[in-house]
């Protein structure tokens, strides 16, 4: 006759053990689960935050284009370096307010565009271009370079020294262009022809070229002022302007 197995009667000991063990295991799983879930959530939150940050970082608005304009130099000067206030071989210095312009060229993901080429040209301190087509009677400045060709470093940064260009009349219906500097920027695959403007100029909002850009576009064209460093002239202005190229 088969032996009948009788179930073990629950005792206080095994009940407590089972209960405690089960409880303990349950708690252990719960706590581990909670910790794991918490870590996962924290990780997800952090990943999410990073993703959001990257998404934000990855979504920079390309700097707006502006027209080339009629005054790109017909003949490029011999001296094309990053100091437009002096011309090699001349002892004089350009007239006007010294201004250091600098910034960073990136793609829309915020990654620096190394070795981008920047061609820069501008009117002098009284609003005259060194160009045969400029009808402005304001005087040329023989010591002003007026044009430069520079490149960004590995960090995408560029800088140059110049004088602040003056506003100038266009000869069209009393329209005066606000102070601005022309740029033709070539990255690895993107090219941007545009103009940099200075924040706070009353003529900006009256300028049909500047206002042809959207509000966000106008913001992308405005340089903000910074403070000169100890290595710069104390009365120098500092203009900071970052550039975003669509594809870098
Ligand atoms: Fe211009």
Describe the structure in your own words.
- Helices cover 21% and strands 23% of the residues.
- The protein has helices at 12-57, 215-221, and strands at 98-107, 117-121, 147-151, 157-163, 168-169, 176-177, 180-186, 191-198, 222-226, 237-240, 243-245.
- It is globular, with a radius of gyration of 32 Å.
- It is of the alpha/beta class and 248 residues long.
- The termini are far apart.
- The chain has two helices and eleven strands; from the N terminus they run αββββββββαβββ.
- Mean pLDDT is 84; it is low at 1-44.
- It folds into two domains: 10-57; 98-245, Aromatic compound dioxygenase (Protocatechuate 3,4-Dioxygenase, subunit A), CATH 2.60.130.
- Strands 1, 2, 3, 4, 7, 8, 9, 10 and 11 form a nine-stranded mixed sheet that branches. A two-stranded antiparallel ribbon has the order 5-6.
Search tags:
globular; single chain; Protocatechuate 3,4-Dioxygenase, subunit A; 9-stranded mixed sheet; alpha/beta; 248 residues; 11 strands
Beginning-to-end CA distance, first to last residue: 89 Å
Main pleated sheet? 9 strands, mixed
Task: Kindly report the name of the CATH homologous superfamily of the largest domain.
Answer: Aromatic compound dioxygenase
The number of E-state strands comes to: 11
Helix content: 10-25%
CATH topology of the largest domain: Protocatechuate 3,4-Dioxygenase, subunit A
| CATH class categorisation of the largest domain | Mainly Beta
Count of structural domains: 2
Element pattern in H and E: HEEEEEEEEHEEE
Q: What general form does the structure show?
A: globular
Q: Which distinct ligands sit in these coordinates?
A: fe (ii) ion
Rg (CA only): 32 Å
* Low-confidence segments: 1-44
CATH architecture field of the largest domain:
Sandwich
């Amino acid at each position: 006759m088969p032996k009948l197995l009788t179930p073990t009667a629950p005792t206080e000991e095994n009940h407590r053990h089972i209960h405690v063990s089960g409880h303990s295991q349950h708690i252990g799983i719960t706590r581990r689960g909670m910790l794991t879930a918490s870590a996962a959530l924290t990780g997800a939150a952090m990943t999410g935050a990073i993703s959001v940050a990257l998404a934000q970082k990855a979504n920079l608005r390309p700097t707006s284009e502006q027209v080339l304009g009629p005054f790109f130099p017909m003949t490029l000067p011999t001296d094309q370096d990053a100091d437009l206030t002096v011309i090699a071989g001349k002892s004089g210095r350009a007239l006007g307010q010294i201004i250091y312009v600098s910034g960073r060229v990136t793609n829309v993901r915020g990654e620096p565009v190394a070795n981008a080429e920047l061609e820069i040209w501008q009117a002098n301190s009284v609003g005259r271009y060194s160009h045969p087509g400029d009808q402005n009677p304001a005087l040329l400045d023989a010591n002003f370079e007026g044009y430069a060709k520079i490149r960004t470093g590995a960090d995408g940064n560029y800088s140059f020294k110049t004088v602040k260009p003056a506003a100038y009349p266009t000869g069209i219906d009393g329209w005066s262009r606000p102070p601005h500097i022309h740029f033709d920027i070539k990255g690895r695959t993107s090219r941007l022809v545009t103009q940099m403007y200075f924040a706070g100029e009353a003529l900006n909002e009256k300028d049909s070229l500047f206002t042809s850009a959207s509000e966000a576009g106008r913001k992308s064209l405005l340089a903000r002022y910074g403070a000169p460093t100890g290595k710069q002239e104390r009365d120098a202005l500092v203009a900071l302007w970052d550039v975003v190229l669509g594809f870098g």
